[in-house]
Amino acid sequence: MFRIGDFSRLSFVTVKTLRYYDEIGLLKPVSVDRFTGYRYYSADQIPRLYYVVTLKNLGLTLEEITTFINDGLNPGQMRDIFILKQAELRRRVDEEKRRLEQVENMLVQIEQSGKMPDYQVVIKKIEPHLIASVRAILPAYGEIGGLYQELMQYVYGHGGRPAGPSIYICHDAEFKETNPDIEAGIPIAAPIPEGGRVKVYELPGMDQAACITYKGPYEKLHDVYAFAMRWMESNGYRCTGSDREHYLTGPHETTDPAEYVTELQFPVEKA
Hints:
This protein has seven helices and twelve strands.
């Protein structure tokens, strides 16, 4: 038998780790001297220790490894654990790929302009959410404020409460000088009855959205749209649907247009 220090040196596992494995029942010493408290291990325990190390390197938690080894799992149960771990690792890989893509996009912007870009583009997934909305043909884009007033009165009047920033969606395939087709939406936490022009439905998510957060007055949003177009073209993306504006901070929160914060969301895919 080997004292814990010798076993640690020969197995390439720290004493601290071996003591912890003992505490959680993952690898108990063969014997413990009742007078000195020294732990003794056997060479026969090396395969079990290396099995633990291998499972840990595969990304399993110590709790999962303890269950895996001590509970006598059958092949089907072991397979289920590895399938779940496989899915988790794939999600991590996808997240790292998205981060890498964002870093590469940032480098492109810096190389093109010679400085940090004025706006940052983040690629992310947008989850679907329940909204109350009013869609109408308006005389001009700036008339949307009336839709939000109508919508807010209706939501509060029917016991609803906003559950997120207001949403603007333009449904026209092209710019119109007059009579644009515009939708004003408000996320809500729970369904309320529909009525009049107010519709309640689940706004679809976006599997991949190019998002830009802008701080400033709405009059300068066209600059952000121009930047978004250049960014998509430079980075090999194309827009696949209607873009959205989310008013994170707006006239209801501040009277200073310079403090308005808007997130633009563009559904995109690689061209």
